[in-house]
Amino acid sequence: MTAATDPPPRTVHAAVAECADRAPHDLALVQGEERVDYRTLTAAARVLAGRLAAWGVRPGDIVPLLLPRGAQLIALQLGVLMTGAAYATLDPRWPASRIAAVLEQLDDPVVVGRPGGEPLGVTRPLAPGPLAALLDGSTGGAADGSVNGLFAPVPADLDDLATVFFTSGSTGVPKGVLIPHRAVTRMFGPGGLDGFGPGHRTAQVAPGAWDMYAFELWGQLTTGGACVVVEENHLMPGWLRTLVAEDGVDTLWLTTSLFNLIVDEDPDAFAGLATLYVGGEKQSPRHVARFLERFPELPVWNGFGPAENCMLTTVHRMTPADGAAPAGIPVGRPVPGTGVLVLREDGSPAAPGERGEIVALGPGVARGYLNNATLTRERFPTLEVDGAPQRALRTGDLGVLDEDGILHYHGRRDRQIKLSGNRIELGDIEAAAATIPEIRTCAAVARTDEGGTVDHVALVYTLVDGAELAPRDVRKRLTTRLPAYAVPGRFEQLDELPRRDNGKVDLTALERRPG
Is the confidence at residue 169, as pLDDT, over 70? Predict the structure, then answer.
């Protein structure tokens, strides 16, 4: 299944430049009191591109950036792209060992960070400051705001590398996902996703190293919309109210867990939004139903997709009827520029209603993994589709296409375990627990013995504020929702579940908990 219409293919920096040429004085960025229009953004990026080129950055390089999220980082990212290079945004708060593990995978790169030598690895400093300060007389700016003599952006091809996302690897070494320009821009513009373009504003909250950072940022800047940088690391209900009321944010991406929290604590904080995307984890039908009761006309989309098929693969506008779906809320149809297949283990297409591995096709598919040809060949095979070879991504996710071509998510292939001879889907346990009204968030994890054999399944959960529910009561309720062999052996209530930088539940930390 594929999207009916797709936006025109463009490179990221060329698309931003088109917006600047068309409407140079339109708002592009907001950070606190700083307001940046498209002319200033692109001119500042050209100044920074000139510095990068002078520092030795060349087309095809990967440039690690160790700066906090904000307008300056955005201009620097754009500047890197203008040189024909790609950027890799690293979080300065990461442990030094993680930063070192990333830098070791790159070929003696130019590393841009704050002055002072912290964190280790920075080779070129960039002091903080407003973007307008880059455009004084010493950098070619004129009193009327026009700029001359600045770095001329390098033309790039759609398949050229734009950014590298470093995700957690099973070996403990971060994996670099190589994302080309075509993957970033494929779903934005005419015929693209709702909520992006002139007159729209998105809050930029996602960590810079995560692919949904690109969704929040480039979704607007490549189409003529604006981005509002939230300097806090998490978007709480009070901040959401401020962003909508004072900064005009109308389009928002939230992780599922954060969406659920706001629905529980302050659902009116969503008032004023025009488009809401939610994803990263399986949706809670109970929270979605509460949201839709309060905002029946506000489009709320379930977004699904791994970083290897940049940002999103499918979306589904959620409705009250979705709560009755046996597998939970559907993840929907492909975003523009994307195709989806469900394949059996032998590689043949699964029949409607038959579970198989979700495979993504099209411009969103990454070029592969940095310095890992073996894993690239395994995860990115070439398949024959409709009589023609196509490069694909094997997601490792299980799903079902129904008779209407709508995709339903059935969990990770690697989250299927065997316990006492029974095959158990951990996602099925989580889906059953999520129907218990008192449970806010939960995760099912397999605990192993010293030999690596699964010993038991634990359900770790948090409760809605004010709710009381003993573990024995959780167990009792699950016995009416799950077969006996799938009912967890342990139940652990926490105040909060541990989370990774991207907001998703840290399953590895939960698996390592004693018990």
Answer: no
